[in-house]
Design goal:
Chain lengths: ~300, ~325
Amino acid sequence: MTLLLDVEIFRLMLIMAAPLVIAALGELLMERSGVLNVGIEGMMAVAAVVAFLTALRTGAVAAGLGAGMAAGALLASVLVYYAATLRASQLTVGLSLFVLGTGLASLVYRAVIGVTMSTPTVETLRAVPLPGLAGLPVLGPIVFSQNLLVYLAVLLVPAVSLLLFRTTVGLRLRASGENPRALDTVGVSVGALRWGAAVGGGLLIGLAGAYLPLVVTGTYSDGIVGGRGWIALMIVIFGRWSPGWALVGAVLFAYTEALQFKLALVTKAVPPQFLQMLPYLVAIVVLVRVYRGAEPPRALGVPYERESRV
Amino acid sequence: MKYLAAIGIAALAGLLVVLVMGGDPGSALGTFLWSSLGSLNGLSQTLNKTCPLLLGGLAVGLALRAGFFNIGVDGQIYAGAIVATGLALGAGGLPAVLLLPAVLVLGGLGGAALAVVPGVLRARWSVNEIFVTVMLNFVAAFLAEYLTTGPWNDPMAGEAISRLVPEGARLPMISERSGAHGGIVLALAFVLVVWLLLERTTWGFEVRALGSNPRASRVAGVRQARLTVTVFAMSGALAGLAGAVEVSALHQRLILGLTPGYGIMALLIAVLGKSRPPGVLVAALGMATLLVGSDSLQRSVNLPASAALVFQALIVLSVLFAEARRPAARGTA
């Protein structure tokens, strides 16, 4: 029991929750505008490798993060070009982009690094204890001694919430996902909104991908994303397309992940592979609850055709 | 026409990659064609690769005809391979006439068992099958890692592979000299079986109706929950059989990395082949050629194995692009 409530687990939980919530917010923006992005896993993989290589060559973590975001936005643009401009099937294109991203990430790494004896590493983003707050008991080490991106992830939740529910752009973005015809009728371009949401979402998804090598591992390896893109996609549904609940979902999944790391350290009785299965099995169990009464944006995944009949 | 254009785009991408890696494009093309189609050995390699890609493509395509996305073929391949290896290692004393069919059938059942999970969740609680199949891929791969490094590990090998399965569990070769194994015969037979099932049986009609108009099919009295579970089971069985064949015919053991992404390639193959068995056959042959050709370049110009995946995805995206440009074809997935 003391193990389950260990301070180190909660610290790790927030570190692992950050990429999940950032990616989920990116996906949420896209889905609220009516664009379904099932290629998120592949996009994160490409962002991870681009970010890692940029950081390795420039020595600057910030440059790596920026490059990863750009890569995410670029791939999301490809998706929205198919989805909004060509009006192709978003599921098919998204899945193809997932495959493309998975292959491309590995290809780019091999092309640049080649096969080496030692794995190249970059320095990971350091923790920045917040003055004053970091000294608090329990909360200090867990919440206020994290890296900057964890703070950013937490701040992004109200920011996206405000954008969606308190601004004109947000209202239009939601309308584009619920009733694009109404939006078109009042003279707002559905295509432009979906493009904007996709590029913005892609930036966030890219940031989440870049986070993995630049904050968590310091190295790149194939499979670094390890299903986190899919889990982010799931978190959006779990959170009923609301930013606040997406944070809750991300924290929940990150807790099982952190617990599994910790368990692997303290127990030798269970083979590590069974512990590694844990987050994925938990995800399946949670899914059963997730789908009860989930109501996606009504125009999600539906290309908008101005000339079609209602 | 659009397929030629798509292959052209992939070829351009290939040229670019070869140049970036510092190779000579002319000789690379020669190596590519010689190693995949030009020589008897190459052709055998291509047929061997076609087997899992074809069975996987049929698995994805079958589910897609009913409107389901089976992204879990990689996991189901592992499940089939695990069950097949377990049986072969445990019951090695059986004569080949019994052991080999049992290995293949149980391998199929292993894949089916894993695929039934998303099927039941979908039928009972309308849980999206994409997530469940993806999550089970990870679970199955970890199980394979545990078995190949733990209880079934070959202590002589020093890597994540199991002990060899006994002779009686091995699928015969078509040609001992060139290395082509009998898996392709099985896979081709299943092209016919799946086609017959889909086009010539009531079950197949119900599957297609479920995919094209679920509401009408429910009103017509189709028992959708049961149909959903059987579609997933069939789809998983095809993938599981592919896993069993990889063990029985190719590696003769369970290895980690048994499937280098055959499942996600199968997705592309099903999309290209429009989920119809004959189309899937053509797409699988094409993708296998691409895979073997790229593999050979891995040695001569250092082309990474993942390049094949990129070329394959580029071909599919080009075809989707061409289709979306023609308004008549809109909405066909």
